[in-house]
Design a protein that fits this description.
Layout (H helix, E strand, L loop, with lengths): L5 H14 L4 H25 L2 H4 L10
Length: 64
């Protein structure tokens, strides 16, 4: 996966803050809740996928 461009990240940060009326704590709380939800979904997918289906691939919970 290609690294995100700084301009793209800056735009996404500004969009997230704007969504929460520039409330940084609300923005961080939403991002942490999203992170928790996605980690749960990843754990469920890991348990549901058979090894043969994904040819030995395992999802990673942390960035490399």
């Amino acid at each position: 996966m290609l690294p995100a461009k700084k301009e793209d990240i800056d735009y996404e940060v500004e969009a997230a803050l704007a969504f929460h009326d520039d409330d940084a704590k609300a923005t961080i709380a939403t991002l942490l809740a999203d992170n928790h939800h996605l980690r749960l979904q990843l754990a469920l997918a890991e348990r549901a996928l058979s090894r043969g289906l994904v040819r030995g691939w395992r999802p990673s919970f942390d960035r490399d």
